[in-house]
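Support request, priority: normal
Reporter: lab tech (M.K.)
Component: structure prediction queue

Hi team, I submitted a job for Endoplasmic reticulum aminopeptidase 2 from Catagonus wagneri yesterday, and the status page still shows it as pending. I've pasted the exact input below so you can check whether something in the sequence is tripping the parser. The sequence length should be 348 residues. Please let me know if I need to resubmit or if it's stuck on your end.
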Amino acid sequence: MDLVFHNSAMVNIHGKLIFNIYIVFYCSAIILPHTCICSQFTSSSNGQHNKDPGAFTVATNGEPFPWHELRLPTKVVPLHYDLFIHPNLTSLNFVASEKIEVLVRETTQFIILHSNGLDIMNATLQSEEDLRYRKSGKKLTVLSYPAHQQIALLVPEKLMADLRYSVAIDFQAKLADGFEGFYKSTYRTLGGETRTIAVMDFEPTQARMAFPCFDEPLFKANFSIKIRRESRHIALSNMPKVKTIELEGGLLEDHFETTVKMSTYLVAYIVCDFDSVSGTASSGVKVSIYASPDKWSQTHYALEASLKLLDFYENYFDIHYPLPKLGRFKFHIIVFIRTCFDFFPLYM
Ligand SMILES: *[C@@H]1O[C@H](CO)[C@@H](O)[C@H](O)[C@H]1NC(C)=O
Ligand SMILES: *[C@@H]1O[C@H](CO)[C@@H](O)[C@H](O)[C@H]1NC(C)=O
Ligand SMILES: *[C@@H]1O[C@H](CO)[C@@H](O)[C@H](O)[C@H]1NC(C)=O
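Reply from support: The job had stalled in the queue. We restarted it manually and it finished. Here are the results:
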């Protein structure tokens, strides 16, 4: 859902909130991944096999790219992502690293991941379960095939079925322009100063602009996210913060709890300097509204409206959906008011 939207009327704020909260409940019920998002993939994958079976796919460096289809192979599946993101809101880029724990289902010579516009610095492979990869960090050859937004990691020796491996990748990129991937956005303070924040929108297939990943909704995995930032900023993500570490030079690093198993497009993180107000709905769900100082006047209204709507929808869904499903999700919902009155929820 691209929630970009312009409004000045309260009516729209209302409509938007209803929509957002509705979406949150949808996501929470894990209905979305199976219906709308999946249909997009199934429809786009059909007929996207190479039309000419003899054609051979060439990577950017001229070597043959080992995979020809738009959909990823299913020989390797992700189990867990350890994501470290270090955005700089001054230089407007980010450096990052990730460790993806994967399970190999069928013997293979390569791992295909989505990646779009990322500068991959290196990739290594390690495994506790495969003696040949026990020693840390066997370097992998990385090939890139931008037409399919894919990279291939070629392994020196075949990966064995039913074993787990850990792929480590260092990468960097500019914070994107526009409203997709991990992008920069600005707002003006009451004093007239322009400030930058970093926000993401990964739906339906833009997570690959922020980190190399299996960017199809059926490849669900747990995510552990760490974000490095300056002390004047805050970082938000899907999950509550476990701790903040102070680094030499004054930077801070927030570590967030591991998520449930979920699709890449649900991953969320933001670095900004916004303030928040919070409240609790009668069901026990906590709601926080984050906004820039110039939008501060809207936050209390937004909070009040969110809490009322949440109560309304909980009652509403109690009637229409089996209770246990809703009862499992005691979220902390974050509504994030963006610069131009856009807002969208994160849930914790
Ligand atoms: C990978 O690249 C990063 C960033 O340039 C560097 O710090 C790291 O040492 C490199 N790792 C390997 C194994 O080459
Ligand atoms: C961003 O870069 C500036 C220098 O260009 C530095 O002072 C600042 O600490 C950096 N911030 C982060 C979060 O790395
Ligand atoms: C991954 O998520 C599942 C629930 O979806 C949870 O049971 C499991 O503990 C999580 N794994 C980790 C390592 O947190």
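The two ends are 18 Å apart (CA to CA). The chain has two domains: 1-36+274-348, 58-269. Let us know if anything else looks off. Ticket resolved.
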